[in-house]
Amino acid sequence: MTEMFVPKEYAAKTPGGRDVLLRFPPEEYAARLAATRKRMREEGLDALLVFAQESHYWLTGFDTAGFVFFQAGVITADESSTVILTRTPDKRQAEVASLYDEVRIWLNAEDANPALDLRAILEEKGLKGKKVGIEYASYGLTAFNGRTVDTALEGFCETADGSWIIRGLRLIKSSAELEHVRIAGKLADAAVSATIERVKPGIPDSALIGAAFDAMVTRGGDTPSGGPMVNAGAAALFGRDSGIAHYIEEQDQVLVELAASHCRYHVCIESTLTVGPVDPRQERQMGVARDAIEEIKANALPGRELGTLDDIHRRVLDKGGFAKARYAACGYALGCTFKPTWMDVPPMIYSGNPLVMQPGMVFFVHIMIPDTDTGLVAGIGQTFVIRETGEPEVFSDLPVELFRR
């Protein structure tokens, strides 16, 4: 029988007494809000304007695609009520599945300016002349909307970039969060295994995407925030989803990079599949990539700087003769993310990154070697969490090898 991973829901009440259903126990959210307010006070902020959908979700449970429009949360450094300003299609979700105390609506109209509605909320809360942080580094705040916010708040209050307040806190996962990450790892393994089983000459590469997606969502996973990426033939050397149609040939190569999601927490895997006879040069490429990722995992230890992992990536690939082929970074943080990407950045794993690795940080490391001289690719990637001691916990049981069909 196929193992299912349908998420549990937790009944809770907002501070104002509204009944809601959440993905985590209410005490988990209470701890997150307390930590956010503590960090805000440390930064001298009286309030934070939340625009990142990841922040809405992590802080209150609010889960919506409405962040593509103007949508802002207001969090004060004191204990006053939290407010979400959103549109009518998101009203019910905010009411029954988020801990925002107040749900305010702005209406579409030719002369609508929700930034002015936002300023009115700030004025109600006594924030005129105060210092307000803004989550500028977010897909939830376009440059256009950001300019309207700046214009509306000019002369009203002091503003500062508050992009790192919640993002920094989200870097270290709680034990409850890691349970979802572990499930996402099982779903990612199932998705990659499905592509391996499905690949054969004569089928379109899109069939592999369908197999991977089906393996994730039919077991209780979310729609992931990107991909799956399946690039075959010459396109296997691409670093992004190309959309180029390709029928699998008698001798071929397929690069698969996908993330599975459970309660929005993502685990990413990268694998290389071959069909037919394997070129010995590609086997050697994979050997170099495997050496790099294994050494990186052995050195992903608490107290060390994140950039040292990319130092290993560079050294091993350069020694193997692939200095020209390697990327300038070898991975990034993962967490609860929304479209358009599963990448929870910053931080990226690049040489010189001074971020100190701490227990609970989750990273995806991938070694990509697109050799344009031979037209062959070797790509492998795994997701892991930094532990208190010893090497990291890896969220995949698949072998690190070239998969052959």
Automatic annotation (TrEMBL):
SUPFAM superfamilies: Creatinase/aminopeptidase (SSF55920), Creatinase/prolidase N-terminal domain (SSF53092). Residues 32-172 form the Creatinase N-terminal domain. InterPro entries: Creatin/AminoP/Spt16_N (IPR029149), Creatinase/aminopeptidase-like (IPR036005), Creatinase_N (IPR000587), Pept_M24 (IPR000994), Peptidase_M24B (IPR050659). Pfam families: Creatinase_N (PF01321), Peptidase_M24 (PF00557). Residues 179-388 form the Peptidase M24 domain. PANTHER family: AMINOPEPTIDASE (PTHR46112), XAA-PRO AMINOPEPTIDASE P-RELATED (PTHR46112:SF2). This is Xaa-Pro dipeptidase. It comes from Cohaesibacter marisflavi.
